[in-house]
Every structure is written in structure tokens, then in C-alpha cells.
Write a structure and sequence with these properties.
- The chain is α+β, with helices and mostly antiparallel strands.
- The chain folds into three domains: about 180 residues, Formiminotransferase, N-terminal subdomain (Formiminotransferase-cyclodeaminase, Chain B, domain 1, 2-Layer Sandwich); about 160 residues, Formiminotransferase, C-terminal subdomain (Alpha-Beta Plaits), CATH 3.30.70; about 200 residues, Up-down Bundle (Four Helix Bundle (Hemerythrin (Met), subunit A)), CATH 1.20.120.
- Helix content is about 50%, strand content about 15%.
- It has 18 helices and 15 strands.
- A hairpin with a 2-residue loop joins strand 10 and strand 11.
- The radius of gyration is 29 Å and the shape is globular.
Length: about 550
């Protein structure tokens, strides 16, 4: 069963005193099962955004301790900052990440809110998906009037908190807790110091837009309500502000649904609207973490605008995204610290694919039985897919072939996916071998232990048979790219595509040998014979297509 994971992104009203921030994050880190992903303080906003992740109960335990510590250390009567705020812990959203629904996440938000309100005497308001009232879904509506106006606001019966007493907590203010989808906090830098001009662009962008005016007066509808002109971007909230720390104005955006308005569209639209108003976008910055998909989508978007192949490595695509949006203008952008999937990677074990070529060869040649033929087959297949992909990329950039760039880019992107999958199988084949060894090492003293050991050996053997079979399947899909590149790719690189096909055939044959020998250890002969028969079919088809590709390669030469 998949582990349930939620992310918590509390915003604390302190961005200057790093000692206070450290004391708060220490509370989070002392909870077992929680991983602190990011701490992002801002001096001008006097606000720190903290991101941590884990299973639901440990996460809300850590959030409670952090809110408690913030209430002890932060005095809101003395707080000043550019960002709207109403409490020491201003907002604390929970975000479903894996294995958990939004409805379940809402229940955890309520559980946290109840505990904070009752045990810490901090008024708590529920927002977004956890909101109990329709007018409390929007954070900006709850926070209107900010801390300075909250003493009067809480006396209004309509603004009684969801948890806690309707009494103004002068030191800690109030806290907004909720459940929401993944939000990207994103700031775009302008070559101006004018907050008013930054706001003009922000109003162009944000979904809520601006109040419509005619002859300098607000336009009202038949009921006397203000008529609004919607902005250009759905699921986007935005304001303009001046950041003294950097000496520039920014458009500060919250992208509340990146499947509707992705990062790159928000950036490009900001560029267009700033230019229309006589300003220039000089770069941008991400506050907190961003999903890997957002960065890859952005990189591919800007490559496509250049009519360049998107079939390059993940690392290079991210680099294009960073440079295109100027994400490193104000501070260095480290993907390992800013992309959530990279930060969450916990596997610190030694991987074959992380070795350099010499180390990998030496490891293979050592007295250890792994890596063996299965891992080497997967790696040779990855090299074959890489060669075919290289030809696709070279073809997409060939002078005079500009009208074909997208055709070759599609093949290159497919090739990158095959290569990446095969690289994972390099280590997975060795892992499969280790599973067998571990199973043989299980105790066999009692009948029960013997049965458990026998089952573990059979399960591991089946897995060790399935992995090279998977390698055969993935490798075979690489022939399509090699063949297309021999037939239609850059003629100067036809032999590279041919060598790629030879590598793929070698990989398939090598993986076939591993399927056959591992299947021989299976007691379930029906499954064993089925796997070997299907592997034999792939091998025969492989031999035929490899000959066709090599004949075409020779003819092209």
C-alpha cells in the first residue's frame, strides 16, 4: 500500500532574526517521520516560508509544535513587513502529495486547527478546501485588514474563528489553516522601483483583475457592487511590491493551479504586459519549492519557441528553464534544493549509474558477481538509445532542415525517455540479484522458516526474471528511433544510428540470456515458460529488425 504523504508550508512572520527561525524549524525536525525540505526567509517581507513533508500525523504534530514556538518567540505588536499578515504563524496549509485525498487532508487540517485553537488560545480560521464558510475560502478575504485591523474584526460575529475563542491574541494574532492544491509562489522582477507600476502589471495578470473605471470613477452594477475587469491568467493571485533588499519592484504571484496556468505562461505573460507598460522583466525567483514537472514543462516550452529539440537531458532542460526565466538573477538556483522531487530523494546508497566510466568498468571486472550481464545489457541498451537520440538532436539542428525540427525533436524526446528507463534498470537488475542473495540468507531452522525462505527465494527469482524481460521490451522500443535516424536523419551521422542499433541488439540478446537462466529457477513452470516464450519472440523480432537497419546503414554509406 502506498505511503500517505502530505506537505506543510507554514509562513512565519519573521524573516530577519535567523535564530528565531532556527528555533522554529528545530521543533519541526525533532518529530520523527518528518523531513524539512526548505527554509526561505525574506528580509523585506519579514517572513519565512518553511516546507516539510511526511505522513499525516507526524506532519500535523510538527506543525503544532512550530506554531506553538512561533507564538512564544514572535511578537506581532512589533512586526513590520511588506507582505500581508495577521499572525505569528500567518498561514499553514496542508497539501496532499501521495496516497491521500483532499478530503482526508481536510480532516487533518481541522484536527490541527482544533488543537491550535484550544491548546494555544490562537484564533484559527479554516480556508481553501477546509473552509467551513464560502466567504472564507479565499485567504485574502480572511486576512483583509491584516493584524492591525484584526482586533476589531474578531468582534464581528461574522468573523468568529472556526477554532479558539473570539478574543484578540495581541501577541500572536490569528492563524489561517487549510488544505489546498500545490501552490507555486513566484515573483517576477521588474526594472522599476515603482510599486504602483508593478501593481498595474499584477492587476493585468491576476484572475481577479481590477475594478473597472470610467472617467476616473468606479463602475457599479445595478446592485451597487463594483464591476471588475478580469485579468489574463486563471488561478493566479498577484500584487506588486518594492523589495528594498534588491532595490527593485516585483510582481508577486501565487499560482494556485499550475495545470491551468503553468510557470512559463505566467512568466511570458508578465513579460508581455510589462513591455506594454514600458517596463522590462529582468528575471524571476521561486519562493519555496517547485515540482519537477513545472521546470521540465518550462524548459521544453522555451526550447520549442526557439525551434530546438526538447529531447535533451533533464539537467539541460532545467538549465534552459532557469536561464529563460532568469531564476538565478537574484540568488543562485540549485535544482537539488528547489525542486521538490530532488529534495525528497532519500536513497543515499551507492548507485552504479552514478559512477564514472572507469569506476563502473572496474566494479564490473571485480570479484563481485554483480553487476553482471543483466546490468551490462541495460547499460549497453542505454548507450544504443543515446546514440540514436544524438542523431535525432543533430538532425533537428541541421542547417536547412529547420522545417523538420519538430519531427526530429519528437524522436529525441522519446529516445531520452528510453535511455532514462534503461539507466534505472542498470541498478534494478543488480538489486534483483541482491534480493535473491538475501532470500537465500534467511533462516531455515523451523518448517515455518523454511516455507518463508522458499517463498522469498521464488519471489526474488521471479523478479530477477522480470527485470531483464523489461530491459528487452524497453530496448526493443529504441529500434524505432535508430531506424528512423538511419533512413531520414543527418546522413553524416548514419553510422552512429547504426551503432546504436547494434548496441540495442546486443542488449536484447544479453537480457534474453538472463531471462532464460533465471526462469530456470522458477518452480512455477507455466510462468517460466510464458516468460521465456515471450522473450524468444522479442529476440527473433530483434534479429530481423537489426539486420534491416544495418542493411540500410550500409546502403547509406
Amino acid at each position: 500500500m502506498q505511503k500517505q504523504l502530505i506537505e506543510c508550508v507554514p509562513n512565519f512572520s519573521e524573516g530577519v532574526d535567523l535564530n528565531i527561525i532556527k528555533q522554529i524549524t528545530d521543533e519541526i525536525e525533532k518529530v520523527e517521520g518528518v523531513k524539512l525540505l526548505d527554509v526561505d526567509p525574506g528580509k523585506a517581507t519579514n517572513r519565512t516560508v518553511v516546507t516539510f513533508v511526511g505522513e499525516p500525523q507526524p506532519v500535523i504534530d510538527a506543525a503544532y509544535l512550530a506554531i506553538k514556538k512561533a507564538g512564544e518567540l514572535i511578537d506581532m505588536t512589533k512586526h513590520k513587513g511588506e507582505h500581508p499578515r495577521m499572525g505569528a504563524t500567518d498561514v499553514c496549509p496542508l497539501i496532499p502529495i501521495a496516497g491521500i485525498t483532499m478530503e482526508e487532508t481536510v480532516e487533518y487540517a481541522k484536527k490541527l486547527g482544533k488543537r491550535v485553537g484550544e491548546e494555544l488560545n490562537i484564533p484559527v480560521y479554516l480556508y481553501e478546501s477546509a473552509a467551513q464558510k464560502e466567504d472564507r475560502q479565499n485567504l485574502a478575504t480572511i486576512r483583509a485588514g491584516e493584524y492591525e485591523g484584526f482586533g476589531d474584526k474578531i468582534k464581528d460575529a461574522n468573523w468568529a474563528p472556526d477554532f479558539g475563542q473570539a478574543i484578540f491574541n495581541e501577541k500572536s494574532g490569528a492563524t489561517v489553516i487549510g488544505a489546498r492544491d500545490f501552490l507555486v509562489a513566484y515573483n517576477v522582477n521588474l526594472n522599476t522601483t515603482s510599486t504602483r507600476r508593478a501593481n498595474s502589471v499584477a492587476f493585468d495578470l491576476r484572475e481577479n483583475g481590477r475594478v473597472k473605471e470610467e472617467n476616473g470613477k468606479k463602475v457599479l452594477d445595478a446592485n451597487g457592487a463594483e464591476v471588475r475587469e478580469p485579468g489574463l491568467l486563471k488561478s493566479v493571485k498577484a500584487i506588486g511590491w518594492y523589495i528594498e533588499e534588491y532595490g527593485i519592484a516585483q510582481i508577486s504571484m501565487n499560482l494556485t493551479n499550475i495545470s491551468i496556468t503553468p510557470l512559463h505562461i505566467a512568466f511570458d505573460t508578465a513579460v508581455e504586459r510589462a513591455h506594454a507598460r514600458g517596463m522590462r522583466v529582468t528575471g524571476s525567483e521561486l519562493v519555496g519549492l517547485v515540482p519537477l514537472k513545472s521546470m521540465l514543462d518550462a524548459g521544453k516550452y522555451f526550447l520549442a519557441k526557439q525551434k530546438r529539440s526538447v529531447g535533451i537531458s533533464e539537467e539541460e532542460i532545467i538549465k534552459i528553464a532557469v536561464k529563460s526565466m532568469g531564476l538565478d538573477e537574484l540568488t543562485p538556483f540549485d535544482p537539488k534544493k528547489k525542486i521538490i522531487e530532488y529534495v525528497m530523494q532519500e536513497d543515499s546508497s551507492k548507485k552504479l549509474i552514478d559512477m564514472n566510466l572507469v569506476a563502473f568498468a572496474n566494479e564490473t571486472a571485480s570479484e563481485s558477481p554483480a553487476p553482471g550481464g543483466g546490468s551490462i545489457s541495460a547499460y549497453v541498451g542505454a548507450l544504443g538509445a543515446s546514440l540514436a537520440t544524438m542523431v535525432a538532436n543533430l538532425s533537428s539542428h541541421k542547417k536547412g532542415w529547420d522545417d523538420q525540427w519538430e519531427y526530429f525533436s519528437n524522436y529525441a524526446e522519446k529516445g531520452q525517455g528510453i535511455k532514462d528507463e534503461l539507466l534505472k534498470l542498470v541498478d534494478e537488475d543488480t538489486n534483483a540479484f541482491n534480493k535473491i542473495m538475501n532470500a537465500f540468507g534467511l533462516p531455515k531452522n523451523s518448517d515455518e522458516e523454511k516455507q518463508a525462505r522458499s517463498k522469498a527465494i521464488q519471489d526474488a527469482t521471479l523478479y530477477a526474471t522480470q527485470i531483464p524481460f523489461k530491459t528487452m521490451q524497453v530496448c526493443f522500443s529504441g529500434y524505432e528511433i535508430a531506424q528512423a535516424m538511419v533512413e531520414k536523419g543527418n546522413p553524416n551521422s548514419v553510422t552512429d544510428a547504426g551503432v546504436g542499433a547494434l548496441c540495442i541488439r546486443t542488449a536484447i540478446y544479453g537480457a534474453y540470456l538472463n531471462v532464460k537462466i533465471n526462469a530456470s529457477g522458477l518452480k512455477d513452470k507455466v510462468i517460466a515458460e510464458k516468460l521465456v516464450a515471450e522473450a524468444s519472440d522479442i529476440l527473433q523480432k530483434s534479429n530481423a529488425i537489426e539486420q534491416t537497419i544495418m542493411q540500410a546503414t550500409e546502403a547509406k554509406m
